[in-house]
Amino acid sequence: MNARNFFTWALLVLLPSTPSFGHEKVITAKELPAAAQTFINTHFKGKKITEAKKDVEMRKTCYDVTLDNGAKLEFDGKGAWKEIKCKSSAVPPATVPAAISKYVKANYPKGRIVKIERDQSGHEVELSDGTEIKFNKQWKVIRVGK
């Protein structure tokens, strides 16, 4: 076996067993971080968790939760929300930053925010008509599209 073949063989053998590569596990609601449980109980009161998963990828942990009303939530490893997708209703207003609410009300008075996502660069929302709006950290609109 030459060096190239050995390297290829070693990658095939070692990579699947390396714990830092994607690993998803179904968990119970009680296994979610306390912050995520509080968020769900506060903003989705009375909704039941139908599925919860813990996903470990490249040393980062996130949690994916599906509720009985079709809402899908994603939390970081500490339980802070990263994404909220509501299938049949608007995203809870208390979860939307005031600057985003103000912009949407002024520019899309009939629009409902059905998805909100946040990361280190800012926030992105999707409205009920499919319009997507990206905001930077200073709450300036940097992209609008469908």
Protein described:
The chain is an alpha+beta fold. 22% of the residues lie in helices and 37% in strands. It has three helices and nine strands; from the N terminus they run αβαββββαββββ. The protein has helices at 3-14, 34-43, 98-107, and strands at residues 23-26, 49-57, 60-67, 72-76, 81-85, 113-119, 122-127, 132-136, 141-145. It has a nine-stranded antiparallel β-sheet, with no helix packed on it. It is globular, with a radius of gyration of 19 Å. The N and C termini lie far apart (53 Å). The model is unreliable at 6-20 (pLDDT under 50).
Main attributes of the structure:
146 residues; alpha+beta; nine-stranded antiparallel β-sheet; 3 helices; globular
Distance between the termini: 53 Å
Rg is: 19 Å
Portion of residues in helices? 10-25%
Sequence stretches where pLDDT stays below 50 over 5 or more residues? 6-20
Largest sheet properties: 9 strands, antiparallel
Q: Biggest sheet, strands in spatial order?
A: 1-2-3-4-5-6-7-8-9
Series of H and E elements: HEHEEEEHEEEE
Give the DSSP E fraction (strand runs of 2 or more residues): 35-45%
Q: Supply the number of helical segments.
A: 3
Question: Which geometry do the CA atoms define?
Answer: globular
Which structural class fits the helix and strand makeup?
alpha+beta
Instruction: Indicate the mean pLDDT.
Output: 89
Count the strands? Answer: 9
Task: Please outline the helices and strands.
Elements: H1 3-14, E1 23-26, H2 34-43, E2 49-57, E3 60-67, E4 72-76, E5 81-85, H3 98-107, E6 113-119, E7 122-127, E8 132-136, E9 141-145
Antiparallel strand pairs: 1-2, 2-3, 3-4, 4-5, 5-6, 6-7, 7-8, 8-9
